[in-house]
Design goal:
The chain is an alpha/beta fold. The protein contains 16 helices and eleven strands. The strands form two sheets. A six-stranded mixed sheet has the order 2-3-1-4-5-6, with helices on both faces. Helix 9 packs across helix 14. It is elongated.
Amino acid sequence: MTDSHATEEDWLIEEDEELPASAGGAPDQRRWRVLIVDDDVDVHAVTRLALRNVSFKGRELELFSAYSGREGYEVLRDTPDIALVLLDVVMETDDAGLILARRIREELDNQSVRVVLRTGQPGQAPEQRVIIEYDINDYKAKTELTTQKLFTTVISSLRAYESLTMLERSRAGLGKILSGATNLYQIHSLREFASGVLNQVSAILDVGADGVLCLMQGGTGATSVVAATGSYAALAGNEAMPSDHPLWPTIAKAFAEKKSQFDHPANVLFIHTLENREVAISVTPPWPLAQIQRDLLELFCQRIAAAFDNLYMFGQLRKAQEATVVALADLAEFRDDTTGGHVHRVQQLSTALAARVAERGAYADEITPELLEMIGMASILHDVGKVATPDAILLKPGPHTPEESARMREHAGVGQAILERAANMVDGVSYLTYGAQIAGSHHEHFDGSGYPLGLKGRAIPFAARVVAVVDVFDALLHRRPYKEPWPHSAVMAYIGERSGAQFDPEVVAALFDLVERDPAIGQPSAAAGRGTISAENKT
């Protein structure tokens, strides 16, 4: 409804003094969004005229118009970050503005936007009742709103909105820091970790920020690009940060002064870890960072400083564990120099085959991320029990006697016992855990006719079912003292014939998938690997 009372003629009377612009703050390309909801076109025009030069903290106003409560609701629903609504009460109905005020809080669940009621008929919506019953922030009769008073109302509303949004960003940012830092601790690769850090920084800023994370080790002075995103993604492959890159001066300054730099558009977060590793994270958001964002980022850097050290120590422990596994395999295999790269080929194919079984959707309850990560390294321990096999039996070029075969088969139980004792000294799942399963069960048959325990079907550990196929597949394809290599087609036919009897059908099917994708898999010419020497079991 259009107001027609004579008392409204003095609304927004210009005062003598010039309307001041609010000072303070660095320029920002974003603008404060203000929505005018009124059914009187002239009200929109005069409000826009009165607020044409208003700015707050270096940011101008962006004015939106709606001419009914329904239209105002749609604008608020579809337009993010509206800071202030200048809302008429009487429009398509006598209480359209009040209804919209309630819908803003209840239906849109928008508690941050400031709502200022303006009415030309205060008697229809008494101020005390409206203030008590509706979540509004101010109530003005249009006759009392001069240009100066409108300016004061707008600036105070924007200041209140900024405070509320900062609190909300702080709360959300802290939540992201806590969850993000926790998730980052689960990442084992430095590059994956660094990419995760950049993603978390972007989440804290709530923008799709580009970023470059550089790591300076010790006092060498050389920087390496560990991770990069967005328009800087091409830098991720660089060993060193290019000295002519636009970001380099700010990054170098952060390293030199050992503190963060906030020089828009280049912002560099500096992290110094307890192990004297220095990290610079450069981000370039589209606008200057607010103080609350700087504080949150600094807090995040404090949270993850220890994570860089922990990741380094984890990597060292992982390398030590892998070295121990290789040493154990070497100890078992060094007596026979006839099998070439068997162990290395078994390691590679076991990893690929387990992953393919997982891709096919089989055994989801058995296949874990840890198994997929560790099965390859653990597979090289499959014959570690042969340390207890006498040379006369292990290296015999001809067939074994029944007694020799029985002694040869003891290596499965011996290997499992050795590795289980070692695995029990380590908390959780390790290479030794899967190594024990593989060593003890890779000679079991799917139909229960294998050794040493006659396990059947899924009673055989999944890792052992995989290595059982890989071990035989590779052994048949390559020369041994007691046999010549088989043709690839004959090997595939043999594996297929033994599916469901000696071998797990799902694993066999996955092997056929891999060979179909890459027929060179397992071929001697393509599989001439490096690694430790293996003495292959002839039984």
